[in-house]
């Protein structure tokens, strides 16, 4: 039995925890999702369950009416390919480790948002898929709105001496 009545009566509410003690009174941590935006609300010290639910409803209404999320990238989105020294591959894809979104007041455009990638410029094999190799910064007017770890999209093993030798010969041949 779920004691969070908002799960049934507020569209998008999917949890989380109700509680009561004499000291803390009626408490609720509620989570809800609407239009791709997840909101977490917390109330402590409410005098009754009715007041607790009313306060949470008010917070959720405010959040969903005043704010929006802008999804920029899904998880594992390839942003670049960077060179790898002494690898069995010349490059490794740089991918997002998680989905990337920013939160704004409703109606605010994100045309002036700037993306800045900082990737280790001196990568050496071996590199494991999922290894952090950089950071994606989302900025507006010099303020950092989001920071996301960037990871290697593939494994890159150390190249054999023969492969490295052939690369050197190929570079001299191209010069």
Automatic annotation (TrEMBL):
One of its GO terms (biological process) is proteolysis. Gene3D superfamilies: D-Ala-D-Ala carboxypeptidase, C-terminal domain (2.60.410.10), DD-peptidase/beta-lactamase superfamily (3.40.710.10). GO terms for molecular function: serine-type D-Ala-D-Ala carboxypeptidase activity. Keywords: Carboxypeptidase, Hydrolase, Protease. Residues 67-158 form the Peptidase S11 D-Ala-D-Ala carboxypeptidase A C-terminal domain. It holds the Pfam family PBP5_C. The keyword tRNA-binding does not apply. The keyword Cytoplasm does not apply. Removes C-terminal D-alanyl residues from sugar-peptide cell wall precursors. This is D-alanyl-D-alanine carboxypeptidase. It comes from Halalkalibacter akibai (strain ATCC 43226 / DSM 21942 / CIP 109018 / JCM 9157 / 1139) (Bacillus akibai).
């Amino acid at each position: 039995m779920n004691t969070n009545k908002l799960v049934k009566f507020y569209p998008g509410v999917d949890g989380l925890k109700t509680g009561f003690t004499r000291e803390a009174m009626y408490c609720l941590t509620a989570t809800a999702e609407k239009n791709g935006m997840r909101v977490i609300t917390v109330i402590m010290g409410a005098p009754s369950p009715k007041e607790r639910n009313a306060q949470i409803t008010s917070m959720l209404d405010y959040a969903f009416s005043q704010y929006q999320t802008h999804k920029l990238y899904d998880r594992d989105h390839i942003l670049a390919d960077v060179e790898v020294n002494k690898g069995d591959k010349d490059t490794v894809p740089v991918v997002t480790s998680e989905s990337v979104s920013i939160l704004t007041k409703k109606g605010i455009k994100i045309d002036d948002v700037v993306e800045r990638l900082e990737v280790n410029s001196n990568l050496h094999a071996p590199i494991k898929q999922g290894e952090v190799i950089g950071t994606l910064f989302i900025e507006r007017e010099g303020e950092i709105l989001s920071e996301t770890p960037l990871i290697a999209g593939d494994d890159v093993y150390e190249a054999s001496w023969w492969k490295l030798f052939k690369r050197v010969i190929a570079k001299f041949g191209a010069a």
